[in-house]
Every structure is written in C-alpha cells, then in structure tokens.
Amino acid sequence: MSTVPYVLLGALAATSFVAALFFLRFWRQTHDSFFLFFSIAFGIDSVARFALALCHVTNDDEPWFYVPRLVTFGLIVIAIYRKNRPAGRNNPGVTSEPH
C-alpha cells in the first residue's frame, strides 16, 4: 500500500496544528472568544487527522471519523454566530454605536 495518503494526512494535521497555535496567539492578545473557538476547532481537527493517519483505517466511510469534523465545523459556526450576533439585552458588552 502507498504511503502517500498517510503523508498527506500528517501534513494536514501539522498545518491544522499551526493554525490552532496561530489563533491561540491572537486569543492571548485580544481575549476574544472568536479566536479561542477557532483555535479549539483546528486543534480538534489536527488530533483527528493525526489519529486517522495512525489507525490505518481500511474503511474511512465509518461515521466515527466524521464526528470530529462535525464538532470542528460546529465550533466555527458558533464562533461566527457569536461574533456577528446583534447587540441587545443578551449581549450587554457590545454596542451598535460607532466609537
């Protein structure tokens, strides 16, 4: 069997890990939860792809391999929603007036 798919999964895991560190750095500077959600999402993606490369799976159509991706994309959607939600009584720290 070819090792190319495993090398590509490793490369994807490494780039996801770098993206997680990138967003973590911005979260540490700004304390904006948007960056924290993205960092966690890319961290989960990195671990999932690394595990997939180590497992030597014969059938990657199994639903368990899509659960981390579902969580990852769910976190990204939540982060985008939280960042763009309208100001109101449920979001007292954000005002709609320009500074």
Radius of gyration: 17 Å
Structural class: mainly alpha
Q: What's the rounded overall pLDDT mean?
A: 85
**Residue share in β-strands:** under 5%
Helix content: 55-70%
Order of secondary-structure elements: HHH
How many DSSP E strands?
0
> Can you tell me the overall shape?
elongated
Biggest sheet record: none
Low-confidence stretches: none
Tally of DSSP helical segments: 3
Distance between the termini: 60 Å
Task: Summarize this structure as a short list of keywords or feature phrases.
99 residues, mainly alpha, 69% helix, elongated
Describe, in short, the structure shown.
The protein has about 100 residues and is an all-alpha fold. It is built from 3 helices and no strands.
Write the layout of secondary structure elements.
Elements: H1 4-30, H2 33-55, H3 67-84
Description:
- 69% of the residues lie in helices and 0% in strands.
- The chain is built from 3 helices and no strands.
- The protein has helices spanning 4-30, 33-55, 67-84.
- Helix 1 (4-30) runs antiparallel to helix 2 (33-55) and helix 2 (33-55) packs antiparallel against helix 3 (67-84).
